[in-house]
Write a structure and sequence with these properties.
The protein is α/β, with parallel strands linked by helices and 421 residues long. It folds into two domains: 307 residues, Glycosidases (TIM Barrel, Alpha-Beta Barrel); 100 residues, Immunoglobulin-like. It has 13 helices and 17 strands. Strands 1-8-7-6-5-4-3-2 form an eight-stranded parallel sheet. A six-stranded antiparallel sheet has the order 9-11-12-17-14-15, with helices on one face. Helix 8 packs parallel to helix 10. The longest helix has 20 residues. The chain is globular and about 70 Å long. The relative contact order is 0.11.
Length: 421
């Protein structure tokens, strides 16, 4: 495994600074764009392939800023389908970039069919031999991809095969839950894969399957000791609506409750700047940064969320996820409902909450309702001290029970961290 994993909870993104904005008109690097990203709470930048000269300049600038980078390079894409030249292509990539301290890893491919797993495993092995300090990053389909798209009969089989054969440093996937609820708009483009993704996106409204998806990934993650990352929907596109802050918080805190060790936002910059980037099909709007380079409302929302996420994520990063339970029904099939007691939490009452338990007595309570607050009451083993983490000021405070019952309220889509000592 890569040995340069960040010692803090990692927050990254898709679609970074476009080619059009990476340099000023006078040719100088737009370093302020990297600072802007950091001010939003992102500590791992996903970079486009800007070409060798700009890639190197960008990596050097990010080192000075303390920003890590996942790098893209067209030679890696060529190496997937060119087994005869794979070794030399990857050797050249490593020779060019491995010495930069800002480098976190190499972007390999997005949403591969399982037929590509042997080639991806070979790429991962070659990179690991040449450059064991940096990860090979691959993102998987969500569970609403068809068996044809996956190349596997079930989603769990797909994730398990990926973990076993490719042995990635992290299991990454996206599952976009929030739909506009409009009829499917017919679009046909030459790219069959893009059509399949587009049609799959319209199949269900307020899509069920979010929890089934994360449960499959969590199960494989725990079995293989490979951490996992969830990609959080931000950008409005196709059937996906313009999200409220509470809906974005819902994605973040449900993912944390299940034990995600890294989160990514889709997207940082709104696509459709350098080329149409599928804009005719997807109609991209409202990423964190607009197409013209200005900050959107989502930028400010996520900057606030990330201040809390960083603190909570740092505390949960070294802790193993022990169990996840639901209070209140969800339309998924793989959820576990509250059994009445777990660990030192002897009872828990709420209408619509996910409870994620971690070693060390940590419990993350996440509101499944993104429109209304959720009152929560619980009891703890007598003699134990119950602590509540204050997200606003970063302080732990001992909770005072009312009789034997502890009470708190989760804001819409939000989460709160408890520790029972």
């Amino acid at each position: 495994m890569a040995n340069n994993r960040m010692d803090r909870f990692t927050i990254t993104h898709w679609c970074g600074v476009p080619h059009k904005f990476i340099r000023h008109p006078d040719g100088t690097l737009a370093i302020e764009r990297f600072r802007e990203m950091m001010e939003a709470g992102i500590n791992l930048m996903a970079a486009y392939d800007y070409g060798y000269e700009t890639n190197c300049e960008m990596l050097a600038a990010c080192e000075k800023l303390g920003l890590k980078v996942t790098l893209s390079d067209g030679r890696i894409s060529r190496a997937i389908g060119d087994g005869a030249h794979r070794q030399e292509l990857l050797e050249a990539v490593v020779r060019d970039y491995a010495g930069y301290p800002a480098l976190m890893g190499y972007h390999i491919v997005d949403e591969p069919n399982s037929g590509a797993f042997p080639a991806l495993a070979d790429i991962r092995d070659i990179l690991h031999r040449l450059d064991p300090a940096h990860e090979a990053y691959i993102n998987l389909f969500p569970n609403y991809a068809s068996p044809e798209m996956l190349g596997n009969p079930t989603y769990y089989d797909h994730v398990a095969q990926f973990a076993k054969e490719v042995r990635p440093e992290i299991i990454s996937y996206d599952h976009y839950h929030f739909i506009k609820g409009e009829p499917m708009e017919r679009r046909e483009v030459a790219d069959q894969r893009e059509n399949q993704i587009y049609e799959a996106a319209f199949r269900k409204v307020e899509r069920p399957g979010f929890f089934d998806n994360i449960q499959d990934v969590r199960q494989v993650s725990l079995a293989t000791d490979i951490p996992f990352m969830v990609i959080i929907l931000v950008v409005e596109h196709g059937p996906y609506r313009n999200l409220t802050e509470a809906e974005i918080r819902w994605e973040v805190f449900q993912s944390l409750a299940y034990g995600a060790k890294r989160l990514s936002y889709f997207t940082y910059w709104t696509p459709g700047v350098d080329t149409d980037e599928g804009d005719a099909m997807w109609h991209w709007k409202n990423g964190m940064i607009a197409k013209d380079g200005t900050k959107t409302a989502h930028y400010h929302m996520i900057a606030g969320i990330n201040r809390e996420l960083q603190a909570l994520g740092d505390m949960l990063l070294p802790r193993r996820s022990l169990a996840v339970f639901h209070l209140g029904q969800v339309p998924d099939t793989k959820v576990a409902y509250w059994p009445g007691a777990f660990g030192d939490m002897t009872s828990l009452v709420a209408d619509s909450v996910t409870a994620g338990f971690f070693d060390g007595g940590y419990v993350l309570l996440a509101n499944k309702d993104y429109e209304a607050p959720a009152p929560v009451t619980f009891t703890a083993t007598p003699g134990r001290r119950v602590m509540h983490y204050g997200k606003a000021d970063g302080l732990w405070r001992e909770m005072t029970p009312e009789g034997s019952v502890y009470a708190l309220t989760l804001a819409a889509g939000d989460g709160e961290l408890i520790r029972i000592d």
